[in-house]
Amino acid sequence: MQRLFAIAAIASVSACLEVPGTGKPAELAMRDVSAPDGASLEQACTPSGVEMCFDAIDNNCNGVIDEGCGVHTGILQFAIAWDAAEADVNLEVTDAAGEVAQPGEATTSGLYKDRDCPRDGGCFSQNVENVFLASGEPEKGRYRVVVKLEKLGTATAPVKVRLGVRVGQRSYASAFELSPGDKASEKAFEFTL
Ligand SMILES: [Ca+2]
Ligand SMILES: [Ca+2]
Questions:
Q1: Which of 71, 89, 117, 172 has CB atoms 3.0–4.6 Å from 127's, for a disulfide?
Q2: Is the pLDDT of residue 24 over 80?
Q3: How far apart are CA 147 and CA 175, in angstroms?
Q4: Which phi and psi (to 5°) does residue 6 adopt?
């Protein structure tokens, strides 16, 4: 009788560092962030449980804002949410080429706007505006994000607004108030990718 000993050298360590959804490591980061007086754009994320819809907050700190809520996301995402349903707050994202993302039409760099509340009609008092990059690589350069109180309507000022920004696998957040008036009605952020 002869025994054969097969030595199987299984030493295949799977060193997969791929970022889900992108197929490669994403090292996108914001640089030279400029925030308006009284607001900041912070990367700090405190996990507060499961993802909540329509709050523009990455509640579970997985780098994606309002996932599973019917809003689109991408490697770039900008979202605002506000509670005063009667107020009209606008999110204007200008890409590195100077184009503003509009509902129904992508910029040349691929930024779409998929919610425009409360005008959309499908908002049901869950007022969110959302801009995202559907595919491809984000264009490098300077981006400008303006959040503007367009109409107060019957809402009471100030209107509390939350802004969430996703860049790669990181999410950033800001919270501030808007009131009617030249300076108080608008917050402008800028950053470089
Ligand atoms: Ca999330
Ligand atoms: Ca959320």
A1: 117
A2: no
A3: 11
A4: -95, 120
36-69: per-residue pLDDT in tens?
988 999 887 888 889 999 999 999 999 899 999 8
- Span from the CA of 126 to the centroid of ligand 2 (angstroms): 12
For residue 93, the CA-to-ligand 1 centroid distance in Å is: 21
Give the Cα separation of 163 and 128 in Å (integer).
Answer: 10
Q: Which ligand has its closest atom nearest to the C-alpha of 64?
A: 1
Q: Do 172 and 154 meet the contact criterion of CB atoms below 8 Å apart?
A: no
CB-proximal residues (5 Å) to ion ligand 1:
51, 58, 60, 62, 64
Positive/negative CA dihedral, 80, 72, 42, 91: negative
CA of 60 from ligand 2 middle (Å) equals 8
- Is residue 110 classed as helix, strand or coil in its secondary structure? coil
Task: State residue 21's pLDDT score.
Answer: 54
- The pTM of the full predicted model, rounded to 2 decimals, is 0.82
Q: d(Cα 105, Cα 17) in Å, to the nearest integer?
A: 35
User: Which whole number is the average pLDDT over 67-88?
Assistant: 92
Round the average pLDDT of the chain to a whole number and report it. 85
Collapse the DSSP code of 85 into the 3-class scheme (helix H, G, I; strand E, B; otherwise coil) and give the result: coil
